[in-house]
Amino acid sequence: MNLRAVLPFAHDTLRKVVRSGDYVVDATCGNGHDTLLLAELVGINGHVIGFDIQQVAIDATRTRLEKAEMTSQVELICASHATIPVYAKQPVRAAIFNLGYLPGGDKQITTTADSTLLSITHLMELLEIGGVIILVIYHGHPEGKTEKEAVVAFCTAINQQAFHVLSYQFINQQNDAPFVIVIEKRKPRQS
Ligand SMILES: C[S@@+](CC[C@H](N)C(=O)[O-])C[C@H]1O[C@@H](n2cnc3c(N)ncnc32)[C@H](O)[C@@H]1O
């Protein structure tokens, strides 16, 4: 297939937007794949804040970063991404949410609509002009369906003068195929 699958598309977008020295957020560390990519992209002069509510996910992420010798630019926080304003100390260039449950973990512990929407709202404030929030949406489980409906309704209503909002989706795939939403902050118009 020449078309990029959903997760590679999300990672390509991070590679285009994130530069050395940037300040970025992994809102759902899980096993740390996205955290590691962000750590590589920002380099030793940048900063990654990684959130997960499960200590097992924070530990898995730390192990992955240690193996790659990428710990110095990463701050791992075992708390909900809804607490982002407590930790984020400067404008954010990019944030990624990989929604759902920890692969190989407890499927009952998933992201939820309320905290996801609260975090997106905080991040829209914190985002730099040209910065992005990437949402990888898995909706094959019951909470995922509720969350998807809430996230799509929220994103569809975002002011188009302030943000570009893109949906990247294979519309003929069966079985609740995951998809990506990207929210990009626009330059304010001169009046
Ligand atoms: C699909 S996994 C993330 C996968 C991960 N990005 C990776 O590269 O392996 C979703 C993660 O979100 C975490 N999570 C659920 N609710 C959360 C919340 N409110 N704040 C932060 N993390 C949360 C879960 O514990 C789980 O580890």
Automatic annotation (TrEMBL):
The keyword Transferase applies. It holds the Pfam family rRNA_methylase. Keywords: Methyltransferase, Transferase. GO terms for molecular function: methyltransferase activity. It comes from the Bacteria. Signal peptide: none annotated. Gene3D superfamilies: Vaccinia Virus protein VP39. GO terms for biological process: methylation. InterPro entries: MnmM_MeTrfase (IPR010719), SAM-dependent_MTases_sf (IPR029063). This is Methyltransferase domain-containing protein.
